[in-house]
Structures are given as C-alpha cells and as structure tokens.
Write a structure and sequence with these properties.
By secondary structure, this protein is an alpha+beta fold. Helices cover 17% and strands 37% of the residues. The chain has 5 helices and 23 strands. The relative contact order is 0.12.
Length: 470
C-alpha cells in the first residue's frame, strides 16, 4: 500500500462506521450483525484506503482484493463470480462480476439461517440479499401523523489536528429521528481552525443522529481543545420506509455529485451524507505530505431525493455518499425554506432560514455553496428561534452559502432551550452605508455641540471679566 501512515484512520475517517437506517432498494439492511457484518465493513475500509492511495484511484482487481484482505485481516477470502455462487460459511467472498474500478462487492453467508449478507460500495450499509418489505423500523414505529415533536442534544470535544471522532445523540424513548445537526460551540478561529463534519446522517436502528467530524487546523503548533454540540429532532409516527444511498468517487483535484432518489410511492423528508475524508487542506503533515481528500459542498433535497456535491484537494480523493430518507405519508411533501448569504475568502459566515409557515414544524436542514467548491462546510444546526443555520468558511475563496430548512406538517412542540441562539445577520451594503451616515451625523453633531459650548464658556468669561479703572 502506497504511503500508508500511522494516522491513516484520520484521513479515511470512519467510512462505514455509522449504523445504517433500515430498508434499502436491494432489501432490508441488517447493520450491526456482530462478526459477519463487522468483517465486511472492516474489509471495505481497508479497500477504500487502498483506492484513495492508488495511482489510478481504482479498487484493486478481485484477486488482489482477496490478497489484500488475507494479508491485512488474517482471514480466509475467496473470489466467486456472483451472489448466486457465494461459497462457505462465515467466509468473505469477493464478487468478481460486480467488482471493478469504481465498485467493490463483498458477501458472506452467516447466521442460524445461513443468509447472505452483502456490502456493495455503490450503496454503503450491509444488506440482506433478497430481503423484501418495509423496514423493521417502520413496522414498529406506529406509523401515522407526525406528532409529539421533541429533541435531544449532546456534546463532544476534539483536541488534535486532523483527528476524527464519531459521535451520536439518541432520541428520547418512543420517538424516532427526523433530522439533526452539529454546532461549533467553540467558534471557528480566524484562520479557519475548528471542527468540520465528514458525515451527517440519521440513525434508524439506534434512533438518533450521527456525525463523524475532524479537527481542521492550519497551524503547525499546538491545537486547542474545541467543543461541538450535537442535535437530533425526533417525533412519533413518521419514519422512512426506504433510505436509498447513492455513492460517487471524487477524484483528486476534481468534483463529484451523487443523488439518492426515493422509490415510487414515497416522498423525501430528510437526508444526509457519508464518507468524506479530508484533512486540513494545504498543510504538510506526517512526512511532508499534503493529503487533503474529498469534502462536502452541498447536501440538500433535490426533486424527490437528496443531492450531495463535493470537491477534492491535496494528494487524494475519496468517496461521497448521498442518503435520502423517504416515507409514505399524506402530509408529504415537506415545504422548503431558505436564505442565501456570502462567505468571504478567509472568513466564516452563517446563513439562517426564516421560521416555517404556520401549521408546519422545522424537522431537517441542508446547505449548498451554489456550485462553488471554494468553501468548507463547518456546521448546520437548529436554532433556539426555530430556524435552521449553516456555517461555511472561505478556505479557497469566496462563495454564496444557502441554508435550507424542511418543514413538515405537524404541531411544533419542540423545547429548544438547549439549542444555540440565532446569530444576527451580517449587515448588507445598504445597512453599512446607513450606519456610516448615522455615525458621521452623530460625530458632526457632537463636534458642533462641543464648539457651541466652548463659545458659550468664552462669552461668559468675557462678561465676568472685571473692568479696570484708570
């Protein structure tokens, strides 16, 4: 493996660490299945790293995939032609007909029923081959009108440059996640130092929201500990019946787009992204390399699906996955609200949406830099005022930042006391001109008043001056 380094985990992130939502186009997702699923996920992480550092940015050929997994995992691995010919029991199979430059498919037969579990890099989570029907979550969630909206928060810290951390916050018992966010409680530094997300996604099986984040620090000195607040907004009776994923590879110095489309009969109500892997752009670390990697520049609803875009910088690219959360509900579709602002080069800026219309509640959010790849997405979060805010930093240049909020038909019962306050909007040019005018008038008035008072004092002194007698 070329340029494999001790801190490689920081670059690759936790590409498949998030527990998947249930219900995929291929079948029912079965994330969290002890050793069998763990082997497939671990194998994927190793091969994703191989791809990032390869000269052609491709997955290895099937035979080489098997050789790498045998060497790195110390397990038995076989190459088989198709999912119809999976061999053995608790044996990792490389599916030759499906594996190529842009795709990796692994499978294993495991469990008491000897079912086949599949990991397809085009999708992401491990799924059960041939699974049918609604997700287990939707069957047990008491599907019906969205109600009983509530929220939960948590926090975490990162203290080392380019270190990553997987964090999650879970819904109160009996409720299910709708959307979530993270907020840099320690404000971004003037140089952009702060905590930036590698992934943003709903947790179906655990019932919460997950973020894998990394510490970006352009300095070569010590890195201060920073705190992040994590949020999840939850409710009853509104869960996805499908959570399609779509993955693309963002090649070094290029851009990429992926859209996960909801299946017929369902409507998108939320979404997220996975798998970005960037380190601090432009900074040499670990032997003088500028690793970089791929970073998110858009994550938002588009049509009846969820679209993500990304760019890549430095020596490496990486994978990018779009996730759409889709449901069957008479109240759908959600209503979109948005606000656009400017992010200057070398500066941080926040765009904040208005509140949802009456009769609707804010349940999810997204953002976009409008096709620009000159800024990094720092955070997106629910505010105490019932709005959605997104923050960007102009790392490579200036950009337009749009914050998107998604409003579902429901009574808003969320206690937002633990959410951050809404930041005041930056003054526009007219506001700045008016402020300068008012300041100028005020200064002139004070100067005139001082002048008049001085003249008055001088006159009084003249009046009081005694008359000299000859």
């Amino acid at each position: 493996m070329k340029k494999l380094l001790p801190p490689l985990g920081a670059l690759v992130g936790l590409l498949l660490s998030a527990s998947p939502a249930l219900g995929t186009p291929q079948g029912v997702v079965q994330g969290g299945y002890d050793e069998a699923t763990g082997q497939l996920e671990a194998g994927f992480k190793i091969l994703a790293t191989e791809r990032v550092f390869s000269e052609d940015e491709c997955y290895p050929a099937p035979e080489e995939v098997a050789a790498v997994l045998r060497r790195e995992m110390n397990i038995e691995v076989v190459v088989t032609q198709s999912l119809d010919s999976v061999q053995g029991f608790d044996l990792v199979n490389v599916i030759a007909d499906e594996t190529g430059c842009d795709r990796l498919v692994l499978a294993t037969r495991a469990g008491a029923k000897a079912r086949i579990f599949v990991l397809d890099s085009d999708y992401g989570p491990v799924y059960l081959a041939g699974g049918k029907g609604q997700s287990e979550e939707s069957q047990s969630a008491g599907v019906g009108p969205l109600r009983d909206l509530t929220a939960a928060t948590g926090d975490f810290r990162i203290a080392d440059a380019d270190a990553t951390r997987r964090s999650e916050v879970l819904c109160p018992d009996g409720t299910h996640p709708l959307g979530g966010g993270m907020f840099n409680a320690t404000p971004l530094g003037d140089d952009g130092e702060g905590i930036y997300p590698h992934s943003y996604e709903r947790l179906g099986a655990q019932g919460g929201f997950h973020v894998t984040a990394t510490m970006i620090d352009p300095s070569q000195g010590s890195t201060a500990s920073r705190r992040v607040e994590l949020q999840v907004l939850c409710g009853t009776g509104f869960v996805p019946t499908a959570s399609p994923h779509e993955t693309t590879y963002v090649h070094r110095h290029e851009t990429g787009t992926a859209t996960a489309h909801c299946p017929p009969g369902t409507q998108v109500f939320s979404g997220g992204f996975q798998r970005t892997n960037f380190t601090t752009p432009g900074v040499k670390r670990w032997g003088g390399h500028i690793y970089g990697g791929d970073y998110i520049t858009e994550s938002r609803a588009e049509g009846n699906g969820w679209r993500v875009r990304g760019g890549a910088t430095g020596e490496n690219g990486g994978e990018l996955t779009a996730i759409a959360y889709c449901a069957e509900d008479r109240s759908l579709p959600v209503e979109e609200i948005s606000t656009t602002g400017s992010v200057d080069e070398g500066k941080a800026a926040t765009a904040t949406t208005p509140r949802c219309p009456e009769g609707r509640a804010l349940t999810a959010g997204g953002f976009s830099f409008g096709g620009s790849h000159d800024a990094l997405f720092a955070d997106g979060y629910f505010t105490r005022a019932g709005t959605w805010a997104a923050t960007g930093y102009g790392w490579f240049g200036s950009a337009e930042l749009t914050a998107y909020g998604y409003c579902a038909e429901a009574r808003d019962t969320v206690d937002r006391a633990d959410f951050p306050r809404e930041q005041p909007p930056p003054p526009d040019d007219d506001d700045q001109s008016r402020a300068a005018l008012f300041i100028g008038i005020g200064v002139a008035a004070l100067a005139l008043l001082a002048f008049l008072r001085r003249r008055q004092v001088v006159r009084r002194r003249r009046v009081r001056r005694p008359v000299r007698r000859s």
